[in-house]
Amino acid sequence: MKLYRARAWRDGPVHFDPLDSAASIAGPKGWRFNDLSTEILYAAQVEALATLEVAVRPGWETIQLVLVATIDIPDGSLALPEELDIALPSNWNARPVADDSRQIARLFLNAIARMPAGSDRPAGLRVPSVLSSTDFNVLLDPARKADFKAAITNRIPFNTLRTTGS
User: Fold this and answer.
1) pLDDT of 18-63, one tens digit each?
2) Rounded to an integer, what distance in angstroms lies between the CA atom of residue 153 and that of residue 114?
3) Sequence-distant (≥ 6) Cβ neighbours of residue 111 within 8 angstroms
4) Residue 165: inside a domain, yes or no?
5) What percent of the chain lies above the pLDDT cut of 70?
6) Is the omega angle on the peptide bond into residue 96 within 30 degrees of 0, that is, cis?
């Protein structure tokens, strides 16, 4: 199964490790589905959503380039929240992010840790997107990144979104 991850490039050397999840715990509070004590790897099921997730963050005006990577994960390795007895809070899509939605990644990692040894543990959890009612993000277990193959597959110049013509 192919997933997508994007990163904004602003200046300096262009570097992007699509399997580096360290940014997910780089404050101030974590991201939508994780807190600062729960490292998780965010991806999207479609390239456009991965790009959009980067473009809507504060500071988008300074983006020079968006790097897009594909991440190949084993087929059938995604779970839905209800399959792991995880209920999204009713305010999962609140802006700004509500603290209780930041527990979802921890609930996912705890659920797969409780699974019996030798069982087919999911590599990722499919979660809804705040930006698109038809597309989904995926929270990937960073401990499984040896099972994933990743490569940068697209470089999108971003200057056309910052300039306007008359």
Assistant:
1) 999 998 998 788 899 999 999 999 999 999 999 999 888 777 788 8
2) 35
3) 84, 85, 86
4) no
5) 95
6) yes
Structure confidence at residue 161 as a pLDDT band (50, 70, 90): low
Strand order in the sheet with 136-140: 78-79, 124-128, 136-140, 41-44, 2-9, 65-72, 149-157
Q: Is residue 11 situated within a structural domain? A: yes
d(Cα 5, Cα 3) in Å, to the nearest integer? 7
Show the 3-state SS of the chain. CEEEEEEEECCCCCCCCCCCCHHHHCCCCCCCCCCCCCCCEEEECCHHHHHHHHHCCCCHHHCCEEEEEEEECCCCCEECHHHHCCCCCCCCCCCCCCHHHHHHHHHHHHHHHCCCCCCCCCCEEEEECCCCCCCEEEEECHHHHHHCEEEEEEEEECHHHHCCCC
Q: Which of 142, 161, 122, 108 is CA-nearest to residue 5?
A: 142
For residue 65, being part of any structural domain is answered with yes
Q: Estimate to the nearest angstrom the gap between the alpha carbon of 43 and the chain centroid.
A: 3
Residue range of the domain that includes 78: 2-160
